[in-house]
Amino acid sequence: MAAAVKAINAKIRSNPVSDYFCSTHFWGPASNFGIPIAAVLDTQKDPEIISGTFTGALTVYSATFMRYALAVTPKNYLLFACHFVNFNAQLTQGYRWYDYWYGGGQDRWAKIRAEQKKLASTTESIAESAKDKVGAAVQEAKKSVS
């Protein structure tokens, strides 16, 4: 059994592409990309839910590991890209957090929330009106067919 595992490992390591895709140099950053993806998606959410402390910690973490990705041998550009995206997303979140709590953003977001609520109620009334008209048209069609 050990000989079979050794043979498979030797086969994988003989091809540079499969060697890379079977290494931690690839899978570490690939699995870590969930953090920057979540951070980028969070930039579209309400800034009231942003944690300033956690955003600061993630900014320092990403800056540290951007440096680490270039300090290791061989350089890990995929890890660098992962932390570069996360670093910039966290800077954006940090700005949004600061603007919301210290830059007058609460007033702007109160207006945005009120506008969203108004649009939601308008949309609901339009949907109800359309539903009633479709129901009436269906009844008319049934009368014509019978």
Automatic annotation (TrEMBL):
It comes from the Eukaryota. Keywords: Membrane, Mitochondrion, Mitochondrion inner membrane, Transmembrane, Transmembrane helix, Transport. InterPro entries: MPC (IPR005336). The keyword Isomerase does not apply. It is a multi-pass membrane protein. One of its GO terms (biological process) is pyruvate import into mitochondria. One of its GO terms (cellular component) is mitochondrial inner membrane. It is found in: Mitochondrion inner membrane. Mediates the uptake of pyruvate into mitochondria. Belongs to the mitochondrial pyruvate carrier (MPC) (TC 2.A.105) family. PANTHER family: UPF0041 BRAIN PROTEIN 44-RELATED (PTHR14154). This is Mitochondrial pyruvate carrier. It comes from Exophiala oligosperma.
